[in-house]
From TrEMBL:
<dbReference type="Pfam" id="PF01451">
    <property type="entry name" value="LMWPc"/>
</dbReference>
<protein>
    <recommendedName>
        <fullName>protein-tyrosine-phosphatase</fullName>
        <ecNumber>3.1.3.48</ecNumber>
    </recommendedName>
</protein>
<comment type="similarity">
    <text>Belongs to the low molecular weight phosphotyrosine protein phosphatase family.</text>
</comment>
<dbReference type="InterPro" id="IPR023485">
    <property type="entry name" value="Ptyr_pPase"/>
</dbReference>
<keyword id="KW-0904">Protein phosphatase</keyword>
<feature type="domain" description="Phosphotyrosine protein phosphatase I">
    <location>
        <begin position="1"/>
        <end position="149"/>
    </location>
</feature>
<dbReference type="InterPro" id="IPR050438">
    <property type="entry name" value="LMW_PTPase"/>
</dbReference>
<keyword id="KW-0378">Hydrolase</keyword>
<dbReference type="InterPro" id="IPR017867">
    <property type="entry name" value="Tyr_phospatase_low_mol_wt"/>
</dbReference>
<dbReference type="InterPro" id="IPR036196">
    <property type="entry name" value="Ptyr_pPase_sf"/>
</dbReference>
Length: 158
């Protein structure tokens, strides 16, 4: 099972989702069965670490994002991942615009896994510290929902 989190530049929301979800997988003993990655729609931050504010907010919750580096969505991601989860509607539209006709991955808004089927994870980049905490709260809720779905799928697979 492979999950890709997607945001605009891959320095705030999607690496935070990657870190949060990795921790949940480790806690459930599923780290070896689910591959997790993140990327951005655009190339602006390729190779850079997550925003320092995102790293600090995550660290306060015991999540280390320091080893992550931004990358851009690639064509091969559509074949490699089972889930491509967008942080907002613009990210989703950009994924859908590039999605090959034969892509079987589940593509959608990440917050759908928290019961918010039309809600976006707000981009905290231009806001204050509170925005990063809100993003973490939303990502943790959606991550728990995604984990439930993946656990169910993994139980059904050999």
């Amino acid at each position: 099972m492979r999950v890709l989190f997607v945001c605009l530049g891959n320095i705030c929301r999607s690496p935070t989702a990657e870190g949060v979800f990795r921790r949940l997988l480790e806690e459930r003993g599923l780290a070896g069965r689910v591959e997790v990655d993140s990327c951005g729609i655009g190339p602006w931050h390729v190779g850079k670490a997550p925003d320092p504010r995102a790293r600090e907010a995550a660290a306060r919750r015991g999540i280390d994002l320091s080893a992550l580096r931004a990358r851009q969505l690639a064509d091969e991601d559509f074949a490699r991942f089972d889930y491509l989860l967008a942080m907002d509607h613009d990210n989703l539209a950009a994924i859908e615009a590039r999605r090959p006709a034969d892509c079987e991955a589940q593509v959608g808004l990440f917050l759908a896994f928290a019961g918010h089927h039309d809600r976006a994870v707000p981009d905290p980049y231009f806001g204050g510290e509170g925005g990063f905490e809100e993003v973490l709260d939303l990502i943790e809720a959606a991550s728990r929902g995604l984990l439930e779905e993946l656990e169910s799928r993994l139980e059904r697979s050999p």
